[in-house]
Amino acid sequence: MSRNNQARRVSVFDTTLRDGEQAPGNAMSPDQKLELALAIESLGVDVIETGFPSSSKSDFEATKLIAESVTTARIATLNRAVREDVRLAVEAGGRENHHVQIMATGSETHLRYKRGISQAEAQAEVIDTIRYGKSLGAQHITLGIEDASRGSDALLRPLIEASLEAGADCVALADTTGCLLPEEFGAQVGRVRSWTGPDITLGVHCHEDLGLSLANALAGVRAGADEVQATVAGIGERAGNTPLEELLAVLTYKGEELGVFTTADTKGLYEVYGLLCRTIGLQPVRNKAIFGVNAFATQAGIHQAGMLRDPITYEYVQPADFGRERAILVGRHSGRTVLRHLLEELKTEADDVFVDEVYETYVENRTNGECISLDELRVILAGERATEAVA
To answer: If DSSP codes are grouped into helix, strand and coil, which group holds residue 186?
Structure first.
């Protein structure tokens, strides 16, 4: 992708193994997490979040395995603002190339209903834990602010400024409930960027509850965020997170317009998705960008007529860029153009009567949404021509 001297590099933070695993049905063993981590690393992502080491022996072991095995990506862990959490995280993930994320309470709603503590108490526990992490030699400490999107500036600003002073070098804002519009989230990110200055990494973690996780993440990037947390196929709590594949697609195809770029590669994404599906039993869906069964498939005659001349007529995103293949399928909505195209490939002439007969038999009367591939139809046509010749 071409980029100008003013373009900013966006860091890609993958949280498939942590937030992705938290959703019901997505549990993974340490060995499965390691296999997925290495596959995700091969895409060139910057950070891989391994899990929540203090939450279970499994997450502790997974963090240790991944930390010992990755060679290009850094790792991250999620921890409560509790010293023991941080001690275990450092024990499992080491001090270098490890982003120790300390989760802070970021909204008055959570202070009142979840924590039952005051703003001062919440801030004090975070500052103490950051200082403790620094005393253990942790190189990178992230202030991860849960429910930041519902927090007031009066809560967030002192928390952020005190955390940076205590030694945090990254701030991650979470739209935990997916409640903001892009312009709202972008405005918040812009305010936070003005508090942190340009040298602190500012990340965003967006949820899909209103279907706006990617839009919000991009709004955050426009407003000054330089890291986006995402998951393969958007898996995660409730409706999920920013989908990694969609994020990389936009950064690849629209990075110049956004003034940003990524060094992560898209070509191995579908292979990683396949591994994820096999690992957690995830069922592919039809109408999903990039990974959908029909993302690069068409059966509509009006589309096929154009695509048979040049795929650019209906393909803006190129399937090969994501390890996918184009599929032209024949179903009830297909037209005669695809029949004539295949007959030309077979180097056989056919009059309109023959085309109409084949169309009625194999296209028009297909039911239940059933489709066949061009290869299957090619064999059928060859058989029909052979039968006609014998007759």
So the answer is: helix
Do strands 327-330 and 372-373 pair parallel, antiparallel, or not at all (unpaired)? Answer: antiparallel
Strand partners, 172: 144, 203
- 184-216 pLDDT, tens digit per residue, is 999 999 999 999 999 999 999 999 999 999 999
CA 240/CA 234 separation, integer angstroms: 5
Contacts of 124-130 spanning 24+ positions with Cβ under 8 A = 125/81, 125/82, 126/81, 126/102, 126/159, 126/162, 126/163, 127/162, 127/163, 127/166, 128/81, 128/83, 129/79, 129/81, 129/82, 129/83, 129/85, 129/86, 129/102, 130/102, 130/163, 130/166, 130/167, 130/168
Query: Radius of gyration of the chain from Cα atoms?
Result: 26
Q: Quick one: DSSP state of residue 163?
A: H
Task: Please write the tens of the pLDDT for every residue from 31-64.
Answer: 999 999 999 999 999 999 999 999 999 999 999 9
Banded model confidence at residue 300, pLDDT cuts 50, 70, 90 = low
HEC states along 56-115? CHHHHHHHHHHHHHCCCCEEEEEEECCHHHHHHHHHHHCCCCEEEEEEEECCHHHHHHHH
How far is residue 328's CA from residue 376's CA, in Å, rounded to a whole number?
11
